Amino acid sequence: MTRKMQMGETSMTDTFDFIVVGAGSGGCAVAGRLSEDAATSVALLDAGGTNDSWRITTPFGLALPYSAANWAFETVPQKGLNGRVGYQPRGKGLGGSSAINAMVYIRGHKWDYDHWASLGNQGWSYADVLPYFKRSENNADFDGDYHGKGGPLHVNRLRSDNPVHDIFHQAAREAQFRIRDDFNGEDHEGLGSYQVTQHKGERWSAARAYLQPHMGKRANLRVETGAHATRILFEGGRAVGVEYVQGRQTKQLRAQREVILAGGAFQSPQLLMLSGVGDGEALRRHGIGVVHHLPGVGKNLQDHPDFVFVYASDYPHFVHSSLGRLPSLLRAIQRYRRERRGLMTTNFAECGGFLKTRPDLDVPDIQLHFVIAMLDDHGRKKHKEAGFSCHVCLLRPKSRGSVWLKSADPLAAPMIDPNFLGEDDDLEAMVAGFKTTRRLMETPALRALQKKDMFTADVRTDDDIRAVLRGRVDTVYHPVGTCKMGTDAMAVVDPKLKVRGLEGLRVVDASIMPTLIGGNTNAPAIMIGEKAADMIKAGMRPS
């Protein structure tokens, strides 16, 4: 690393081999792996903080408002949702969304990655990506052909010891759904209890896996928090650095080899556009000079549309939305301090699985998350009663949305349009998903827990279902696709994740997914970071 003062600037400019922008799941993984080589210098920038407080590390902290770690974006009004504005929480700080998510460890189906490869993305079939999932993983419960031991990402069964798991499994049997022990093997159809990214009852974010063990120990790794990237620096068609705001200062870092964007599905395309990379006409409308016309930037946004069944219940092992029942909460805290077990380790979405709404489907088309609390408007609306919820989301929607700039102000939030239920086929598929999930909710095992059906008691006909879907569907927090990988004219990166038409610039996060995978997106984003690090290292070796 070299350090020099630029005349007329108020900050220093440092030079690194690689600059990674965004310390989310992909960014932590790629930065951690690249910095394993002491001869390779890596700088990692993130606009948020260190995310090492108990609110983050204690899984139950998920239920507590903590705005410092959440960008808390909103969508534009959604035509398919009666014009409602949706909520888009995104992680801010080290670990990104893996620091605020529900910790469910899911990779997606083999079909998803083979589909990526069939679109022309050589090297991204399931056989190609499985080694990276395994390399990242330290699975306490499973091994064999589909699981890894000794990786930096701890994966294990929940330690909440909640007896509702047995009730959920009984309901699955009563509804004649198969019980699935492992959702990350050859197939994942069925219902059961999820594994989580935890270690000894604590959240294990991508930062705890790939970054924090090495901070202060690897001289070649520099991590800057509170550093909001404002533009990529170019010389001709090559990315050579990043400008960012930290405190009241505008600073720059220079990259000798590459700038790597890992800001996620909203902020990676935003930074590209702010830097003059995107649809040229749209950029000029904001007064941004066009460095490279790349019309696919910000397009192809995909997310899982999600509906939540909500029930009040007297069952003592559900969480009160107001965090009442103080004596039991205090006992849970005391147990957590002693054993790192019990309620404080809950990820709330403790059970769930993958189902087909039609037997002729090749792969499951819906996913369930069974939550041990009443979840209304992402938990932002509170109720007097305790209760439970069950999400159902559509895994491979046909609707496509987009992300674009509100203005040339780099500190302004991006404009986000997931276009939920924009395609009629998605609405009808969600109707089928509603019916399939209700079949589970109406089993004797789960009916016995229900004191009151909060939102669907009077929903009977298909038109009733369509109405309640349009009135209540929102995200389940899996946006992808806005810097899609491919070889067509709308692709933003190639299969090596290099930005097409430019040098020294890659994108390494969920935005590169050409299509949405059938499951939660944290583990796949980590896989993308692992695979990108290998591709980058291979390119550094002498030919």
TrEMBL record:
Keyword Glycosyltransferase: no
Entry-linked NCBIfam families: PRK02106.1
UniProt domain Glucose-methanol-choline oxidoreductase N-terminal: residue ranges: 91-114, 264-278
Protein name: Glucose-methanol-choline oxidoreductase
Species name: Bradyrhizobium guangdongense
Family, as annotated: Belongs to the GMC oxidoreductase family.
Annotated keywords: FAD, Flavoprotein
Cofactor: FAD
Pfam family, one: GMC_oxred_N
InterPro entries: FAD/NAD-bd_sf, GMC_OxRdtase, GMC_OxRdtase_N, GMC_OxRtase_C
